[in-house]
Structures are given as C-alpha cells and as structure tokens.
Amino acid sequence: QVQLVESGGGLVQPGGSLRLSCTASEINIYDMxxxxxxxxxxxxxxxxxxxxxxxxxxxxxxxxxxxxxxxxKNSVNLQMNDVRPEDTAVYFCKATPQSAWRAVRSDAWxxxxxxxxxx
Length: 119
What we know:
It contains no helices and eleven strands. By secondary structure, it is mostly beta strands.
C-alpha cells in the first residue's frame, strides 16, 4: 500500500506563510487531499486534488491555500498563505485510490504534521 510522509509544519505568525509537503511511495492512481484536526474538533477536509485535476477547497481557506501535485517528486503540496490562528491544527495527508484500483489499493493517511499559528 502507499506510504505517505508529511513535512513542513511548524510555528508561524498570523499573516505568514507555510508550505506542507506529502511524499508518497506512488501517486499517479490516487486522489490526494489534506485534512486537519484541531484540538477538540472533528477532522475536516481542507483541500483535495484528483487525478483529473479537479480541486476542492474548504471555504475558509479559499484564496489563501493552494494544493498542487508534483508528479516528478511523487508529492502533494499545500501552500498556506495569510495564515490565521484558526488554521492551527494537525494536518494530515490522505491518498484515495481511483475507483478502478479499489480492489487492490486502500485509502492511506500520513502521520500528521503540526501547524501552529501564533504571535
């Protein structure tokens, strides 16, 4: 199954920028997404990009966050600009196999990376 490793989290001031990366052992047959979970809250979908380049963003991050895939590096990135304290959470990468591959591939999650927005 696909292995996911996230990187790029840390402490950033409000209004600042951060770039998260998720490196996958394989990526071409997966829709890739970033989720986040703040303390005491449910995990929520932040952004998703499909193999057909359909992109979804959570309303509260539209215009600030950008999801992209680098197929040469097997990575999915989340560029976070103009961050806010409410963006503080653990961010998780998720891979969902295309329907044609579901018989032999499963969903996979990364281990998570902490993002803290604070002055």
